[in-house]
Structures are given as C-alpha cells and as structure tokens.
Design goal:
This protein is α+β, with helices and mostly antiparallel strands. Helices cover 23% and strands 33% of the residues.
Length: 355
C-alpha cells in the first residue's frame, strides 16, 4: 500500500485530521504538502461555487503523485466542519461530481465523511494526463501548490503512455414497454489503439423471462446459457439476457481518444411480460481487447414505473468493477426488498359491516 493510501485509511476522526494538519504545519505554515490539501468553503454550506477549485486539486493530484483533499466549511487554513444536514446533502453531490470532474475520468477516487469534514483520496493516475472538466485545463502538483501544466508537459505525458486504458458507460431504457434499448459507450482513454474488441452482457432481475437482440442487430447476438453465471446461488436473481458482440464487431479498431457508441435493441424471447414489470436490473459487462486482460463492470439500474407504452429511461444507482460485485449485489437485494414492501397489498383486515 502506498503512503498516500495508508494516510487516507488512517484519517477517521476529527482528531486524526487535526494531527495531520499540525504535522504538515511543521514544514509549511498552511499545513499542506505535495500530497495533502485543505480546501474550505469560507463558511458556506453549499459547495457549488467551489467546484472549480476542487476539480483543479483533483486534476493536480491525479497527474502527479496522488493525494488527499480535505473539504471543510472553514477557510483554507482554519478547519471547520459542516453541519449534519449539510453533510448529507454534500455527500450525495460529491459522489456524483467526483466521477465527472476529470477528463478522461479517473477510476479509484474514494470519498468518506469524517466528523463533518470530507476526505477525498485521489490515486496517482496510470492514464495521465487528466484535465479539469470545468475549466478544461491540466494541472500538476508543485510542492504545496497546484499549477497549470505547461503544454510541453501535457505532450510528454501523452507520449509516455504505452498501454491501453479504457472505460465503459451504459444507458438502459424501455421502448414502448415492448423492448429494452441498451446503449454502450466504450472509451479509449490512452494513446494506443485497441484491437479485436469483444463485449459480453449478462442481464439479471428478480423475474424470470429472457430477452434477445432483434434480428437486424449489427453488433450483438444471443448466447446460450453455457456462459458462466456469477450469481447462480442467489434465488432472487434470474438471468434475463445473455448477449455478445459478433465476429464482425471484432474487426473494428478503437483508436486513441476515440470511442464506440453501440445500441442494442432487445425483444422478449418469450411471451412473458418481463419488460413492463421489472423495477431493477443488474447488468454485468465483460469487455476484452487483444492488448489488455478482460475488464468487468457492474451496473445496478432502477426503472421508474410509468404508463403502459411509455418510454422509461433507467437510472444507474450503482456501478463498479469485479471487486465491487458483492457490494452492488447487496444494494440490489436491498432495493428489490424495499420495492416489494412498498408495493405489497395492505395486510390490514377490513372492518366488519355494522348490523
């Protein structure tokens, strides 16, 4: 474990943060270092106006040696916690923003609230450089300062990449209540090309029934159930779809900084009304390139209840890699249990009519 990651795990109380601040003040008056930064909101409980400076620090840490960003309500040198109400709101916002503040996105950013203060761990990127998605500038860390990166440094970082780095995003929606539409965006975040691409999608829900690509699909085909089932011992989980890209798709090349945007229309494999009744889908995506080992992403998607025939766009409520599978499965089981509780018939006995 690297030193930055170890310090992040050590910061669990306000006392831990105060100790870190005093330790760094022995070297710098502001209590910061090349891998540690305090950023306050100057008494404001809303962090919207501070997004630019947070994104700047995250970009700088990702492009240098990684680091820890401490977000609080005071000034940049006077630590002050947010109120409990503010913590709940800010935590939700930060969880979404942290994935959108860098271009290309950085995997592995961690966030935890700590006695009214937020601690963000930014790992050193293996796919640098990353720019702030807000002001579109690249930054690096120099001593205790985050500075704009010179163009020559940006170019050198791009030229130094000699491995394929990719990311996958997904959208799922119903089409008239009769079909599922799956949209995949496979992004090449590196400076080398990816060849022989292959994608395998497994779709799960709490109801039985299968879907398959429509006959005119250019990229996907229906697979048999011989593919490994990662949740075979979970009775509340049925496999609804097993599809993979075709041999023709493998002829494509994903060039540097480019992406594949792929749409797959799925129809019911049987007459069972699966699509209109499912509220939560759990999707596993395996994707491969000749240049890298298999990558795995999980997506937990909530489908709002709508009118018959209405198009419903799913909301992704959790996503992660293979190491996050157990946690996402736990979220799925909790979600369907809560959904069943809210939709089950009332158990209150009807009152007897008076004589």
């Amino acid at each position: 474990m690297d030193e930055v990651r170890a310090e992040y795990e050590h910061l669990n109380t306000r006392a831990d943060i105060d100790q870190a601040l005093q330790r760094y003040k022995q070297s710098n008056a502001d209590g910061e270092s090349s891998t540690f930064e305090f950023k306050g909101t100057a008494g404001k409980g809303n962090i919207k106006k501070s997004k630019d400076k947070f994104a700047k620090e995250i970009s700088a840490f990702a492009n240098t040696y990684g680091g820890i960003l401490c977000i609080h309500k005071g000034t940049d040198t006077t630590l002050e916690p947010f109120t409990p109400t503010e913590v709940a709101d800010i935590n939700t916002r930060l969880e979404g923003w942290l994935h959108d503040w860098l271009q290309p996105p950085l995997q592995g950013i961690e966030l935890k609230p700590c006695d009214g203060v937020f601690i963000v761990h930014i790992p050193q990127s293996l796919t640098k450089p990353h720019r702030s998605a807000l002001d579109r500038d690249y930054y690096f860390r120099h001593n205790t300062q985050s500075r704009p990166m010179p163009e020559v440094m940006v170019s050198a970082m791009y030229r130094s990449q000699d491995y394929l780095a990719t990311s996958l995003s997904m959208q799922l929606h119903t089409h008239g209540g009769q079909a599922l539409v799956l949209r995949l965006d496979l992004q090449n975040e590196s400076m080398i090309a990816g060849t022989k691409p292959r994608i395998v999608i497994q779709i799960f829900s709490s109801q039985s029934g299968m879907v398959e690509p429509i006959e005119t699909s250019k990229h996907f085909e229906f697979f048999s159930d011989s593919y490994s089932h990662p949740f075979g011992n979970i009775p509340e989980l049925f496999i609804n779809g097993l599809i993979g890209t075709t041999d023709r798709f493998q002829e494509r090349i994903l060039y540097p900084q480019d992406h594949f945007l792929i749409t797959c229309f799925l129809k019911p494999h049987t007459r069972k009304p699966l699509i209109e009744t499912v509220r939560f889908f759990l999707i596993r995506a395996d994707y491969f390139f000749l240049e890298i080992p298999r990558q795995i992403r999980y997506f937990l998607i909530h489908m709002e209840e709508g009118l018959p025939g209405q198009t419903i766009v799913g909301t992704i409520i959790a996503t992660g890699s293979e190491q996050d599978a157990a946690g996402i499965l736990h979220q799925y089981l909790n979600a369907i249990s809560a959904d069943e509780d809210t939709t089950s018939p009332s158990e209150v006995e009807p009152e007897e009519e008076g004589e």
